[in-house]
Amino acid sequence: MLVILYVLLAIVVLAMVVGLYQKNTNIICKSKKRLDGKTAIVTGGTSGMGLRIALDFADRGARVIVACPFVDEGTHGRKIIVRRTGNEEVIFKLLDLSSNASIRKFAKDILTTEKRLDILINNAGVGTVGEFITKDGLNFIMQVNYFGTFLLTILLLPLLKKTGTVLEPARIVNTSSVLHNIGSVNFKEMNRVNYWYPIQLYGNSKLCLVLFARELSRRLKGTNVICNCVDPGAVGTTIFNCSGKYYGALAQFVFSVLFKTPWEGAQTAIHTALDKKAGLVSGEYFKNCRIGKAKQCAYDENLAKELWDESVKLVKLCEDELEECFQ
Q1: Which residues are annotated as catalytic?
Q2: Considering only CA atoms, which of 278, 291, 293, 232 is closest in space to residue 31?
Q3: What is the CATH number of domain 32-233+264-326?
Q4: Predicted confidence (pLDDT) per residue in 31-86, tens digit
Q5: How far is CA 268 from CA 125, 160, 218, 227, 295, in A?
Q6: Where are the domains of the chain?
Q7: pLDDT of 263-289, one tens digit each?
Q8: Which of 158, 301, 308, 318 is 20–30 Å from 60 (CA)?
């Protein structure tokens, strides 16, 4: 019994040391940049890190479009942002990244109604939830975390390219994860259900986002649009709810205390979207508000191109659409 108590005490002390170190090394975005007259889209911008990013942008004067697939959450999130910032230029729009039809409808609406798009934050994602094949024939986790983001970004490129300038490039920020390090790309088994461990599948989707940013940056060279990835770190958000109500709440609390709160986790994305030096690079992987190093295979140009070609096929983008987006 005494041994167990000593072990528990050691775990508590270690956790406190880790938490103290993390809290003292978390870097906060220091940019004072205003966003008056600018427009930003934040997917998943109504809860967790996305909500904190949207709050920051709205507080800087931006027109902020927050997107999520739930009406109640979206309406509530918008009210929070308006109440806390006093910015009425906050719009909630429905977007279900597990549906190509929803993505296309959202993108068409944006291209029709918005005059500009300065920042696209691809923040939305799901954790290790139950797997199934969507109506589009894709693994649900892969579609929400990667394929949906891929399609949305491509469809919004005309407005991003129209908005960006040499001095102020339009910025795309993909939210990856440290778990991209356990990810792999297997084209034959990419969308299989119950083939991967759920955490492995999550890692796969986050690795794909890094490869996508690299290949997109290559294809956007010479334009005034840049794309980078961010690793927010270990953050206590509602993504843990997939573990169950009580386990999820406990994990969220522990991660917030020992590692990062949603506000702290949002800082690298905010930095990458606003910082002047961050606006000079594309295809990079940011961590703790600095350029970091992604997994080695994330820099494989042939793999990135092959993933691009496969993604175009799976989300059913036609050649005419691609030409229109990249002309």
Answers
A1: 202
A2: 278
A3: 3.40.50.720
A4: 999 999 999 999 999 999 999 999 999 999 999 999 999 999 999 999 999 999 99
A5: 17, 21, 22, 14, 18
A6: 32-233+264-326
A7: 888 999 999 999 999 999 999 999 999
A8: 158
